[in-house]
Fold these 2 entries.
Entry 1:
Amino acid sequence: MINTLMRSLPLKMAFLLLLTLQTAGAQQTASNPLAPLQPSSAASLPQETYRSVVRIEVATQVPNYREPWKAGRFSGGIGTGFLIGPNLFLTNAHVVSNARRLLITMHGAARKHPAKILHIAHDCDLALLEVDDFTPFMGLHHFQIGGVPKLESQVRVIGYPVGGNRISVTRGVVSRIDFNTYSHSRSDQHLVVQIDAAINPGNSGGPVLQDGKVVGVAFQGLRSADNTGYMIPTPVVRRFLTDIKDGSYDKYVDLGISDFPMFNPAMQKKFGLTPTSPGVLVAAVTPDGPCDGVLQKDDILTAINSNAVDAAGNILIEGEKVNMNEIVERKFSGDQVTLSVIRDGKAMDVTCTLKPFPPSQMYAVQYDVKPRYTSFAGLVLQPLDRNLYSAQNLTNTRVRRLFTHYLDEAIFKEREDIVILTRVLSDPINTHLSGHVGTAIESINGVKVSSLKHAHDLLHPEELPEFFTIRCEGIERPIIIPGDKAEDASQRTQSSYGITSPANLEH
Amino acid sequence: MNQKYSFSTFCFSLFFVFTSCCDKESCQNKKNSHEPEQQSTINTSNAEASVIRQSLVRINSTIQVWSASQPWDKSAPKKRRALGALLQGNRVLTTAEMAADATYIELENADNTRIIPAKVTAIDYEANLALLEPDNGDTDSFFKDLKPLGLGSAAKIGDRVDVWQLEDNGMPIVTDAVIQSVDIVSSFANGHFFLTYEAKGSMQSASNSFTVPVIRNGKLLGLLSSYDSKDQIVDIIAPEIIQAFIADTSDGDYVGFPSLGIGITSTVDPSFRDWLKLSDDLGGLYVTKIRKDSAAQKAGLEKGDVIININDKAIGRRGYYSDEQYGRLYWSHLIRGSLKQGDSVELTILRGGEQKQLTATLSRPEEPLVARDTYDQAPLYLLKGGLIFQELTATYLKAFGKEWQSKAPLNLLDIMMTPEDYEQDRNKIVFLSAVIPTPATTGYERLRNFIINKVNGHTVADISSLIEAFKQAGADGLHTIEFAEGPPRTIYLDAQISDTVDAELLKRGIPALTRE
């Protein structure tokens, strides 16, 4: 279980009590003494540089996906950030997600400086902040971004973890360099460096230093293990800083393929390969993805941009074996990559132009957006996404299937949204519905539903039908709402359940 | 498919298990404190009581189910003890729960002086009934001083009944109970509901008992199928069901209870009724599912029809009708509890606002794509080079634990929910359940729960056709295995290596590579 290392703010307000519970586990383990800096180390930092590591205090408003018309939950937390340029503070996206107020405090100073988000990248958990008035920070050290640290080399982690209010420094060794999940979005995998320094809630967004340069941003830990901290390495940081140069963040791009390792002797024989041959099997190509029409199922992918791909799908970069996607990871939308493949026994080169693939957002946790929904005669309809999936207990097998196969079965082509009936607010008109909650809406008055907006329009036609017939997937018995009674029921349920706005169709 | 959804959870929690961990002393105390009361409430005279005690037979059975993950193995055996009722012809009636998956059953007299091995002559997992007979042994001396019980007739609400238990020492414990309600309940195989008496009575832990006989007027009224100690409610399998079961066994060829083969939902919702054009004087059940080749399908019933009458009995909005004997009863009793296979049923239905008359000839439903009740059936499998292929059953999915409906693999669950999407070219679903790491399966270790479409170009309809398809590898010496979904969609297996592996697996103690 990977968890992000942000610290919840101990605000003394009754309605925030839940938060202290959230951090109960973290509080118990937070007893690391400040690791002293060794003066003998060539890379020792002048005390002054600590002042460039700032404490970020965040007040958040987390949207409510169970009752989407509500304002959401007010809470907050503490994270770390550091200065990398004139009025540019780097931190984690998860530290400042859903933020309503941001305050930055310098090490050793009491003043809280209001700040705002310049750029935020949820897919790689990075954000850039600026303070309203940079004057007090003038002349402070700007951290330089370094390279990828070697295995077994020592690093320092600086931040504001639980256990005290002042800055904390810990040291550790680089234990692993790997591709791994970024738990903030839950759907993205990038390069991750694992270190054995004790990094704890509150360290999130703090710099990891080696030879006076930043080699990573501390961001997540492992619940099931001690002394395993993860940092975002500099290739990911650099990519983020490059991506935003044009003034906006455009997200990661990927190939949109699944690969399968070429370990099996029969598999190798079938494709005319030997145990030492390079190449991984292209097991599936995402429809409409960047490689649709470029790569085919059963191609053997042998190289990306002339980097040989091994049987497990790894390449060698800077002396380290990493996942072949690392090549694409450093590219941007519109860039091209050359893929060397063996197709039907013939070697050939094909070119793939990388592009964003919006349907994949189905699986990424969304932040800073208001949940979409519509309501009708007490029925609440919401589009399926990761947030809804986590918030509602969606157990219906059809819904789970639609979610799981949204991309590979190209369901997105016909259904921009999978519309879920998430709630039936009791009203005389709907009180005898059962078994429909938690299923996907298939059609309304015989028309297949393609998006939330579409469902909303079908439920609010210019001419009222005698009956609204709403069919849910996997359920034979339709929901019937008499046309002339629908509007009254909508009004009644809105007033009695406190739904201030009957619909929110846009983010 | 005669399902009554409101009961499905209720019945799960009520297994009647008197565990052996009860310490002797407390049992003793309980018994003593209850004894004076019992004397006054027993509905049977002392003379009658000694006769009934001669009709009780202890049943000790050893149950062993197959392993879901390693289908060639059996799980650890469990023991169950119960009290059966001796019927005419040296036959002992008990619940199916006692006999399903039994590897050994023995009968023991009340005095613990004689034991004889027994075999199952008829078993109905749906109605939870089984009939046992002695199997090789000194039958005459076992039964010499025992007296068979007669079958009782239907009781009514308010009737008093006796629940019979035996202590380890052979002393009877008779508990007085009053029938409080009559309902349709599923007591063993999921989703099968039969007429059940629910009686109020305070029972106690005696000798471990999975089921015990219930007596009224010196005759066998029914078998206790579960006891809820909190509410002190005893569920009793009704005499009509027992009589039908016994009658079915008489020709030696057990057929089973008939079914219409439909799924239904209520028509309480007024808007839904308006849409269906159902007038207020009618009840009605909305048909949501029709099983393939079922009696309902052959009769011409369609999804979306509303059943108004069954054999001239008006069916209410929630599915209840007025029964002469019991009052309001669920409609499925009209089919399953009152009729037998081959009988015809008159259905009045509403289709498109117009009433229609249909005649259905009752039958037994064919085994579905994903078999539900696989008691006494070993899982069918093929082991090839370390790949484990199995036929999908509900038993396999349920092996994922209490929360199997969310824990079991999604694609396999989906087949169980909507088999009609998968029936093309298939009798059964064959899937790759797991991979044993071997030289032949290098790189495949993490593959599991993939449905098999084809092997070596042949469509796989069941385990037998899979075995057949593996007999001839491709010219390149490779087996080609195609999955219904991926990735990967296709994997290959070296025929020679996998044959060597198979021989090795047999040497390492796997008893057989297939079961078909």
Note: The longest helix of chain B spans residues 24-41.
Entry 2:
Amino acid sequence: MEPLLASSPVTSDANSRNGAGDLCSSKEGSERLKLSGDLESSETSSGDLSSEYVLLQLRIFRINLAVTALAVLVSILFVDLNAAISLLLGAFSGIIYLRLLAKNIGSLGKSSSSVGKAQLIVPAALVLVVAKVPELHLLPSLVGFLLYKPSLIIQFLLEPYAQKKSG
Amino acid sequence: MDSITTAASVVAAGLAVGLGAIGPGIGQGSAAQGAVEGIARQPEAEGKIRGTLLLSFAFMESLTIYGLVVALVLLFANPFAG
């Protein structure tokens, strides 16, 4: 029974280092331990929750980059360079828009009670820029902007695999 | 661009944004309400709720963006201008 023998001295050592071994002897001490354990577990779980949301954003960002690269490559090959540049500009705007939206949703219930509308400036600015610059096309830039939608769908489809991998 | 086309474009742009924002606005409000209630009831599911909310908000808000884009195109890159 080597694993059992190896594990028990380590825990007792850790307890004695924290002074928890002495606390366990009294009733008060065990209550304190319970409280500190609860606090630790709640801190850990809140940390996990926020990191889960951050990881989700990171996954969406990576998928968005991959979809953008694929779409730009296809448009360079089959359309023209100006369309590809418009698509890239639109995709970049889409990433910024989604980042702002995620930031607003992240602060919902914490620092604000409603989701802000600041992210809507991004598509408006995109359309204005594309309308002013004659080399850029409107339709490819809008398609590029909406590339975040397939990214979200792909992320949603791949989520069970990601959970299996992490869990 | 003649004056009738200009006036019609401005009115259409206003209607596109205004009418296009009604539905998503109501939907986003109820979705946010449900999400905040869900987080309050089950704080351990906060990450998943926020993720689902991000997904649903992104899809709902695109309806507003369609209206916004139509309005901006009518105002700044009008295809019906002479």
Note: Helices of chain A lie at 2-18, 20-23, 27-78, 81-107, 121-132, 138-145, 148-166.
